[in-house]
Amino acid sequence: MIGRSGEKSRGVAERCLMLAVMLTVTVVGMGQQLKAGFDIEEYLECLRVSSHMDSLRVEAKYLSSEPRHSRQVYTAGEVGFDNSWELWQDTKSGTALIMMRATVSTMSSWGANFNAGMVSAKGVIDIGRKVRYDYCEDSTAHVHGGWTAGMAYMQDDILQKVDSLVKAGVRDFIVSGHSQGGALSQLTTAMLRRCQATGRLPKDLRIKTYSSAAPKTGDYLFAMHYENMTGDWAFTVVNPDDWVPETPLSVQRTSDFRPTNPFAQIDDLLSSTSGGTRLKLKFVYKKISKPGNKEVENLTKYLGKTVGGMLADGKKGYVAPEYQNVANYSRVGRAIILMPGQDYYKVHPRASKDVFEHHQYVSYEMLAERYGK
Q1: What SS3 class is residue 67?
Q2: C-alpha–C-alpha distance, residues 54 and 75, integer Å
Q3: What does the alpha-carbon distance between residue 269 and residue 222 come to, in Å, rounded to a whole number?
Q4: Antiparallel, parallel or unpaired: β 142-144 and 85-90
Q5: If you count DSSP H runs as helices and E runs as strands, how many of each does the chain have, helices first?
Q6: How far apart are CA 230 and CA 252, in angstroms?
Q7: What distance, in Å, lies between the first and last C-alpha atoms of the chain?
Q8: Residue of 15 and 135 predicted with greater confidence
Q9: What distance lies between CA 95 and its chain's CA centroid?
Q10: Closest CA to 211 of 181, 241, 239
């Protein structure tokens, strides 16, 4: 445990380090700018950095090659549900890399993944203090509850570091992460983009995102707003044999459709039909819609309220948010598909007994190095 003097010394050291990096970034990055569009070399460097974040180095089987032109600047302590993030610098361009940590082998970290009840994309979470979050201008959009709670613990720290870099003249940022880190990179990006939209951050910042092996972060409406906010600046990189991007479970109901969709107005449509036909159509409609409605209720109850309550029991000061009766999860961000070939399957068999065979850093690295060739 670090005492007050230790905390003070660490704080001074971090400020000195940040100052040195800010000066270096400003000089090195002068005249160089991030550009829109997917860049395989940028993604590969982010992947290497992700696998070499301090807290993941012990999990050797997941390591890929060393970062080639990036250096670590800052490592956040563990907060929330064993969440953490790191700040790195691309020494070639001066770009600041905001790296979100993947799941670690703790019940708390995995619990956040399973806490898949949805919450509003804009609201307040109580972590012992009220934290206001904003991922979308439309409060009727929804996002993953567990990762939103984890972000509540990191949000202020990330914004403070971004503010310091912005004051030093930095305008280029890459946000990235693998697996859970990929999901958190999307929420971080949404937060930063909303800060730009509301004037909290300068609009001339260039923010690029590489979400690697990311699970689904929000519902269809959130995905639409995210892609509109980010355009050709945010990508989700997927190995089709990786099961993680298929999660969480997604259920679409007629109530999830936009108001102009005929299925959202089914009662009015049925009322205009003749008596016998109306009864038959109502019977068929109920048979189709009832299972989905029940499944969403169960997902919200167990993955939302139950798991959220368990997380609250193990985290002093944390109050589980109000979960919405929604489970219409969608993939978020422009998809880059790393399509496997026979050379890949010789190294990573499709029917491997290792459930993470196609999710590992080395799997994604192998596919990325062959991308476009």
Answers
A1: coil
A2: 8
A3: 28
A4: unpaired
A5: 11, 14
A6: 25
A7: 51
A8: 135
A9: 20
A10: 181
126 Cβ contact partners less than 8 Å away, ≥ 6 residues apart: 317, 318, 319, 321
Hey, CA dihedral for 131, 137, 139, 143, is it positive or negative? negative
Count CA within 13 A, CB hemisphere, residue 169: 15
Taking alpha carbons only, the member of 208, 214, 159 closest to residue 184 is 214
Average per-residue pLDDT in the chain? 87
Confidence at residue 3, expressed as pLDDT on a 0 to 100 scale: 37
CA 84, CA 116: separation in Å to the nearest integer? 20
* Burial classification of residue 363, based on how many CB atoms lie within 10 Å of its CB (0-12 exposed, 13-18 middle, 19 or more buried): buried
Residues 331-362: pLDDT tens digits?
A: 999 999 999 999 999 999 998 999 999 999 99
- Averaged pLDDT, 202-227: 97
Query: From residue 191, how far is each of 101, 154, 238 by CA, in Å?
Result: 17, 11, 23
How far apart (Å, rounded) are the C-alpha atoms in residues 68 and 235? 21
**Looking at residue 80, what is its pLDDT?**
95
Question: Residue 118: which H helix or E strand, with range?
Answer: strand 118-120
The encoded tokens of residue 336 equal 């880059």
Helical pair 107-114 and 145-167, crossing angle rounded to 10 deg:
110
* The residue type at 278: R
d(CA 17, CA 40): 30
Q: What is the DSSP string of 24-77?
A: HHHHHTTT----SS--HHHHHHHHHHHHTSGGGTT-GGG--SPPSSEEEEEEPP
74-127 confidence digits (pLDDT tens): 999 899 999 999 999 999 899 999 999 999 989 999 999 999 999 999 999 999
Domains and CATH numbers, the chain: 4-258+289-369 (3.40.50.1820)
User: Which pLDDT belongs to residue 2?
Assistant: 35
Confidence of residue 172 (pLDDT cuts 50, 70, 90): very high
pLDDT of 276: 63
Lookup result for tokens 């503010």? 163
